[in-house]
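in:
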């Protein structure tokens, strides 16, 4: 397409979605994310980019999701979904950043330049899927995205309010119809259908109870579970809280991120001692569990716990179906509790890979196994199965001996219940419930599998967080000079001590993580490392204090 036919790109931009700020914005770990009122031009431009990306991919469908996940209501964000339902290819992040930041006057020329650079065939037909979370700023941004798509003669298809993982699923199904039907009904049919199917084969026994409380973070996940709930015939008794009504604010003192980081139960959830609660985040791609014991102490079952639960059950089914040659591996980040890694490698004998924070890194590493289980401690994760694994398991399900067949059939249901494109709180919830039911476990028994090391996460504000560089999956800090040496000295003073620092990809802060043999030590170590960051990396505001 010659640049002259891109006039409309500029006209749309100038008249409807002008760039009103000079603040530089970067496509980060999970797309662009900032105050909603700074995003309209960015989202419009991502509409343009989605069409270009689709045309580079032979007209295959690309997704645009409007969400700021677990951030509070005033924020919003946008990310692109690639044809197989995965995150946007990393090399395109710089292109997205460039397009988002040029002036309106340069937009037409930059768009033309990008089209040329990536060699997109602009005559191809293309449809772009658009979804959004429940924020009040989302509809307006979704419209800007659709306008961007239309400016380059793509066809937008809007799904309205959906969870982020649903949109990933729709994109995958649209480009590969063997995976499922690209509609909300298609999603329920596959994932919830598989759960109901497996529940017929696994009677409730032992300490497992079908009552599950859910903290919906006042976001989209709870609303969707409310739809699903009506179709569950006693297989699971969902009691839903924080559904967005009654003045509940999105992610405010509730949701998976709040529960994980503050290690406190969310507001708005009825308190029943020992009751298992699943807490989702605002766009429903994270889930953690917790319960409060009869002494009012909260016990967290985070992404590490879910990963180990799923990995051990899949291993059990692989052994029973005699498909042991399929290589199962687990992918974690530096945030994984040291005790979980020890348990996985030493007890489960499952290999572990550690990668940088961010789903795309985990997903990528998981692809190297026949069956890759990946989870961030924050509750984002899923399981992915290679074609070879699926074929092998299907064959055993048909041709194996009776016991092998049974296990392989359960495994096939398990695969269907999994949203393999990305971490999915709803899919993960059904997977966890299946394993707990199959093993007759209550939350306390699940927790007793191994003992977490106490840990603490804190943030430090510095002038420029990019002065912090890391290596070795973020476990070593390579700049500023002297910081790692200081961290090593501090860590050495604690039993089971471990600490690392990294610049956040979603907030203008440096994150500090510490663990040690007692909570007091973990808190103290985190505070000491924070002081080191403050001193050596240009801290601003009050110097972090040591606990009394
Ligand atoms: C985003 C990432 C998540 C990561 C988090 C880290 C996706 C879909 N989400 O939420 O994986 O754990 O960022 O945030 O990639 P941070 O860089 O601010 O610590
Ligand atoms: Mg999220």
């Amino acid at each position: 397409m010659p640049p002259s036919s891109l006039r409309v790109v500029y006209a749309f931009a100038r008249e409807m979605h002008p760039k009103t700020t000079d603040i530089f914005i970067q496509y980060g770990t999970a797309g662009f994310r900032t105050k909603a009122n700074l995003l309209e031009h960015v989202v419009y431009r991502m509409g343009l980019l989605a069409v270009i990306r689709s045309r580079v991919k032979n007209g295959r469908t690309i997704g645009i999701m409007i969400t700021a996940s677990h951030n509070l209501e005033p924020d919003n964000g946008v990310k692109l979904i690639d044809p197989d339902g995965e995150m946007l290819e990393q090399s395109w992040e710089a292109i997205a950043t460039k397009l988002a930041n040029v002036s309106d006057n340069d937009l037409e020329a930059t768009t033309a330049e990008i089209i040329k650079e990536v060699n997109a065939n602009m005559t191809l037909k293309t449809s772009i899927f658009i979804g959004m979370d429940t924020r009040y700023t989302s509809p307006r941004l979704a419209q800007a995205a659709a306008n961007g798509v239309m400016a380059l003669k793509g066809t937008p298809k809007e799904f309205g309010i959906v969870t982020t993982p649903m949109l990933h699923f729709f994109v995958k199904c649209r480009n590969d119809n063997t995976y499922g039907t690209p509609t909300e009904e298609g999603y329920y049919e596959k994932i919830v259908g598989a759960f109901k199917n497996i529940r017929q084969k696994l009677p409730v026994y032992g300490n497992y109870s079908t009552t599950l409380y859910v903290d919906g973070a006042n976001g989209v996940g709870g609303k969707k579970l409310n739809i699903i709930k009506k179709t569950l015939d006693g297989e699971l008794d969902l009691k839903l809280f924080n559904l967005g009504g009654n003045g509940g604010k999105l992610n405010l003192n509730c949701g998976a991120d709040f529960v994980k980081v503050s290690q406190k139960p969310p507001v708005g959830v009825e308190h029943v001692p020992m009751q298992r609660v699943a807490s989702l985040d605002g766009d429903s791609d994270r889930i953690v569990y917790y319960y409060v014991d009869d002494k009012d102490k909260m016990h967290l079952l985070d992404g590490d716990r879910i990963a180990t639960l799923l990995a051990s059950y899949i291993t059990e089914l692989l052994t029973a179906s005699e498909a042991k040659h399929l290589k199962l591996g687990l992918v974690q980040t530096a945030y994984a509790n040291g005790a979980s890694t020890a348990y996985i490698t030493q007890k489960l004998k499952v290999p572990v890979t550690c990668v940088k924070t961010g789903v795309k890194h985990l997903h990528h590493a998981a692809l190297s196994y026949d069956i890759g289980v990946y989870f961030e401690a924050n509750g984002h994760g899923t399981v992915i199965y290679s074609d070879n694994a699926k074929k092998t398991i299907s064959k055993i399900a048909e041709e194996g001996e009776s016991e092998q067949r049974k296990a392989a059939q359960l495994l096939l249901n398990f695969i269907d219940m999994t949203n393999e494109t990305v971490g999915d709180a709803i899919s993960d919830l059904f997977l966890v419930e299946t394993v707990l039911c199959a093993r007759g476990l209550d939350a306390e028994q699940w927790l007793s599998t191994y003992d977490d090391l106490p840990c603490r996460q804190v943030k430090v504000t510095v002038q420029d967080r990019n002065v912090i560089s890391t290596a070795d999956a973020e476990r070593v800090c390579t700049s500023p000079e002297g910081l790692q040496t200081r961290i090593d000295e501090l860590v050495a003073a604690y039993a089971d001590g471990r600490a690392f620092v990294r610049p956040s990809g979603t907030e203008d802060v440096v994150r500090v993580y510490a663990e040690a043999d007692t909570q007091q030590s973990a808190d103290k170590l985190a505070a000491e490392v924070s002081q080191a960051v403050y001193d050596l990396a240009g801290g601003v505001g009050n110097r972090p204090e040591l606990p009394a």
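note: The longest helix spans residues 184-201.
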